[in-house]
Structures are given as C-alpha cells and as structure tokens.
Write a structure and sequence with these properties.
Helices cover 0% and strands 25% of the residues. By secondary structure, the chain is mostly beta strands. A three-stranded antiparallel sheet has the order 1-3-2, with no helix packed on it. A hairpin with a 4-residue loop joins strand 2 and strand 3. The structure holds iron/sulfur cluster.
Length: 59
C-alpha cells in the first residue's frame, strides 16, 4: 500500500519504515522529536524518536 506523505514533516531518512521512499516526507501524522543529551546545543543532539528501521533496507 502506498504511504501517504505528510507534507508537514519533511524527512530524508529513507532507512526508516515510515519514510515515503520516492518523496522526502514522513508518512506518520505525528512524530516525536527528542534528545539523547542533557543539554542539547546543536542539531546533532536531536533525534526522531519515531524512527523504526526498515527491514527491507540497510542490508
Ligand atoms: S518517523 Fe522520523 S525518521 Fe522516520 S520517516 Fe518519520 S520523521 Fe523520518
């Protein structure tokens, strides 16, 4: 089934099961963004906590 792109959530992480492969959007209605740092200061400190690996990818 074709995933519905949520044009409010741009994403280039094509290795995620929720990514719309031909378009750089997420297919979820809502995602959670968090951090793995105590005191985040740069973009690399933030994470998409809704990420799930695509089993058909990354082998
Ligand atoms: S869940 Fe996060 S990483 Fe996965 S496609 Fe959506 S925004 Fe990207």
């Amino acid at each position: 089934m074709q995933k519905q792109a949520n044009t409010s959530i741009g994403c280039t992480v094509s290795q995620c099961v929720h990514h719309c492969k031909e378009k750089n959007y997420c297919s979820l209605e809502k995602i959670n963004v968090g951090t793995h740092e105590l005191n985040p200061k740069v973009v690399e400190c933030t994470d998409c906590e809704s990420f799930r690996p695509d089993k058909n990818c990354c082998h």
